[in-house]
């Protein structure tokens, strides 16, 4: 079936689904990650219908409809590593739009089946681009689809301000659920949820500190782009939704640390998730430990089910040389993002936009 044929039938809108958006609980996490810590709050976005990114997906499609960029029943085309795809499937059903997603061969078979079961048309790319890797390859195929799908709309999740705006509801929920908050920990991929919640929360708590959690091999915060095992956080491009000025520090976390944290969470706190959740949880536990008395919260973007064949699979971790028992227990400190390449857990208290940072300043403390 061609992409055009796959989007020729206009689906009926199901606006009643919008009542299921968000409204996720918080849980107190005290599991050692890996060392003891006073505990932190976790916002369990993996329990939401359509996942955390359904908030952004609905916001982007509704914003486009209001501006006349997305006509009723027109197809929506986007690149995804999985999580936004589920959110767009939710938004497409709720608002009545067929959804075509460009994914790559590293997308788990279970996620492919899930997306197709929700009526999504998947377009797969089978090799990374020489420059920009899988993301660039997916975006190249996406542009080809836009040329052949009449009236198709591309949300451009990496650069769309409606992405961030969709998380205002998450901020509002946290402001009700927590009496106070000193430190917020967010994983960073498109930059949407961290940018969307820190502003509203700082109006409640002006001294709130924001810690970003990136993946080793990601270029978002100025590190060199490398092949990445972890999905859902990090990027090989520079998304313009990232609110660099809002971050107080950034941590790069490796896959061994994320795996170790996910498994410890599952054993001791029951709630767990995938790469992004494991990475954010490890940094949140560290923040609670080194800032005694501070109220710390982390956003857990997903649940564990997608990752049963990766994060929770001993054959997978062994095959990729990951030893959770050897995962770092604290970060290595560097003075600026280009001081050293992060091969494992690394922390930097200096955050700059790598597209604006002056090369002459890189050697300064």
TrEMBL record:
Q: Does the keyword DNA-binding apply?
A: no
User: What is any one GO biological process for this UniProt entry?
Assistant: alpha-amino acid metabolic process
Domain of life, per UniProt, equals Bacteria
InterPro entries for this protein:
Cys_Synth/Cystath_Beta-Synth, TrpB-like_PALP, TrpB-like_PALP_sf
The keyword Ribosomal protein appears for this protein = no
Q: Which UniProt keywords apply?
A: Pyridoxal phosphate
Q: Which residues form the Tryptophan synthase beta chain-like PALP domain?
A: 20-302
> Which cofactors are reported in the record for this sequence?
pyridoxal 5'-phosphate
Name of the molecule in the record = Pyridoxal-5'-phosphate-dependent protein subunit beta
Species name for this entry? Streptomyces spongiicola
């Amino acid at each position: 079936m061609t992409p055009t044929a796959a989007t020729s039938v206009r689906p009926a809108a199901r606006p009643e689904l919008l009542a299921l958006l968000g409204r996720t609980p918080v849980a107190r996490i005290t599991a050692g990650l890996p060392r003891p810590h006073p505990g932190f709050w976790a916002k369990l976005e993996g329990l939401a219908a359509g996942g955390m990114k359904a908030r952004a997906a609905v916001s982007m499609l509704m914003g486009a409809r209001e501006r006349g960029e997305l006509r009723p029943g027109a197809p929506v085309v986007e690149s995804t590593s999985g999580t936004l795809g589920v959110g767009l499937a939710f938004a497409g059903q709720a608002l009545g739009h067929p959804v075509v997603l460009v994914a790559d061969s590293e997308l788990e078979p279970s996620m492919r089946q899930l997306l197709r079961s929700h009526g999504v048309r998947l377009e797969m790319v089978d090799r990374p681009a020489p420059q920009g890797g899988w993301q660039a390859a997916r975006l190249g195929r996406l542009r080809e689809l836009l040329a052949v799908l009449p009236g198709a709309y591309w949300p451009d999740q990496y650069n769309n301000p409606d992405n961030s705006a969709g998380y205002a509801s998450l901020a509002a929920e946290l402001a009700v659920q927590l009496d106070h908050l000193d430190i917020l920990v967010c994983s960073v991929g498109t930059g949407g949820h961290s940018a969307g919640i820190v502003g509203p929360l700082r109006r409640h708590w002006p001294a709130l500190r924001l810690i970003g959690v990136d993946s080793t091999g990601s270029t978002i915060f100025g590190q060199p782009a490398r092949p990445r095992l972890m999905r859902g956080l990090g990027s090989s491009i520079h998304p313009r939704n990232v609110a660099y000025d809002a971050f107080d520090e950034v941590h790069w976390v490796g896959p061994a640390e994320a795996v170790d944290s996910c498994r410890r969470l599952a054993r001791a706190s029951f709630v767990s998730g995938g790469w992004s959740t494991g990475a954010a949880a490890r940094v949140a536990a560290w923040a609670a430990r080194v800032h005694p008395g501070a109220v710390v919260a982390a956003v857990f973007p997903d649940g564990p089910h997608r990752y049963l064949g990766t994060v929770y699979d001993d054959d997978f971790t062994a095959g990729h040389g990951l030893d959770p028992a050897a995962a770092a227990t604290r970060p290595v400190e560097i003075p600026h993002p280009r001081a050293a390449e992060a091969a494992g857990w690394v922390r930097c208290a200096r955050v700059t936009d790598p597209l604006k940072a002056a090369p002459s300043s890189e050697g300064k403390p």
